């Protein structure tokens, strides 16, 4: 199939190379491993028809944008059950969430408001600059900074023994994402000034 569909080989290579990172992002956004896989798969289904256009730019940023918009849409519809998907070129999504995802961090993130969670995940777990997060989420840089500050404050409260779950109920800490997500917000707000053309991401969905 891949050989007969223009762009399919490149798309499959992208999925193989980046699906693990995308599923990890999906898990931090949703707090649910199965839902993370569904989120990534649906985002890829919606990305595929536009692949010829976006593949020359920043396709991963495009997929992340679709994922964040889908997450909001699913929550609004109180979606439950399987997502109907179209056929994709042969692909292989990772079956497990990346081992470095901290279960305790995912638990704390799941208790943040959706926008704060998205900002914290994109800004710190994915290490994107403020302007790029703002572009993905369709908000101002100031909103990203304020939501990041509030989100980090809530995470710190939840991840300390006094504010979080009892120690015996917590998954083992120590993830790379957790270290980044709880660092000083002042340091985290520095920006490289990068911009990614994702304004139209998901627009054809």
From TrEMBL:
<keyword id="KW-0804">Transcription</keyword>
<dbReference type="InterPro" id="IPR014284">
    <property type="entry name" value="RNA_pol_sigma-70_dom"/>
</dbReference>
<dbReference type="Pfam" id="PF08281">
    <property type="entry name" value="Sigma70_r4_2"/>
</dbReference>
<dbReference type="InterPro" id="IPR007627">
    <property type="entry name" value="RNA_pol_sigma70_r2"/>
</dbReference>
<dbReference type="InterPro" id="IPR013324">
    <property type="entry name" value="RNA_pol_sigma_r3/r4-like"/>
</dbReference>
<feature type="domain" description="RNA polymerase sigma-70 region 2">
    <location>
        <begin position="15"/>
        <end position="80"/>
    </location>
</feature>
<dbReference type="GO" id="GO:0003677">
    <property type="term" value="F:DNA binding"/>
</dbReference>
<feature type="compositionally biased region" description="Basic and acidic residues">
    <location>
        <begin position="177"/>
        <end position="198"/>
    </location>
</feature>
<dbReference type="InterPro" id="IPR014325">
    <property type="entry name" value="RNA_pol_sigma-E_actinobac"/>
</dbReference>
<keyword id="KW-0731">Sigma factor</keyword>
<dbReference type="GO" id="GO:0006352">
    <property type="term" value="P:DNA-templated transcription initiation"/>
</dbReference>
<dbReference type="InterPro" id="IPR013249">
    <property type="entry name" value="RNA_pol_sigma70_r4_t2"/>
</dbReference>
<comment type="similarity">
    <text>Belongs to the sigma-70 factor family. ECF subfamily.</text>
</comment>
<dbReference type="GO" id="GO:0016987">
    <property type="term" value="F:sigma factor activity"/>
</dbReference>
<protein>
    <submittedName>
        <fullName>Putative RNA polymerase ECF-type sigma factor</fullName>
    </submittedName>
</protein>
<feature type="region of interest" description="Disordered">
    <location>
        <begin position="161"/>
        <end position="205"/>
    </location>
</feature>
<dbReference type="InterPro" id="IPR013325">
    <property type="entry name" value="RNA_pol_sigma_r2"/>
</dbReference>
<dbReference type="InterPro" id="IPR036388">
    <property type="entry name" value="WH-like_DNA-bd_sf"/>
</dbReference>
<keyword id="KW-0238">DNA-binding</keyword>
<dbReference type="Pfam" id="PF04542">
    <property type="entry name" value="Sigma70_r2"/>
</dbReference>
<dbReference type="InterPro" id="IPR039425">
    <property type="entry name" value="RNA_pol_sigma-70-like"/>
</dbReference>
<feature type="compositionally biased region" description="Low complexity">
    <location>
        <begin position="161"/>
        <end position="176"/>
    </location>
</feature>
<feature type="domain" description="RNA polymerase sigma factor 70 region 4 type 2">
    <location>
        <begin position="108"/>
        <end position="155"/>
    </location>
</feature>
<keyword id="KW-0805">Transcription regulation</keyword>
């Amino acid at each position: 199939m891949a050989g007969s569909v223009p762009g399919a080989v490149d798309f499959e290579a992208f999925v193989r190379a980046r699906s693990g990172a995308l599923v990890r992002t999906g898990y931090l956004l949703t707090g649910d491993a199965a839902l993370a896989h569904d989120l990534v798969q649906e985002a890829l289904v919606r990305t595929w028809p536009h692949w010829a256009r976006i593949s020359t730019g920043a396709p991963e940023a495009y997929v992340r944008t679709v994922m964040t918009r889908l997450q909001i849409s699913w929550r609004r519809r109180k979606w439950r059950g399987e997502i109907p998907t179209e056929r994709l070129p042969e692909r292989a999504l990772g079956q497990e969430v990346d081992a470095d995802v901290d279960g305790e961090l995912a638990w704390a993130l799941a208790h943040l408001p959706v926008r704060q969670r998205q900002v914290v995940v994109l800004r710190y777990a994915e290490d994107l600059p403020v302007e790029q997060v703002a572009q993905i989420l369709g908000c101002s840089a100031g909103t990203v900074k304020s939501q990041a500050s509030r989100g980090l404050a809530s995470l710190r409260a939840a991840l300390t023994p006094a504010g979080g779950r009892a120690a015996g109920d917590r998954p083992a800490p120590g993830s790379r994402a957790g270290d980044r997500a709880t660092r000083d917000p002042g340091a985290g707000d520095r920006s490289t000034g990068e911009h990614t053309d994702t304004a139209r991401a998901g627009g054809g969905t």
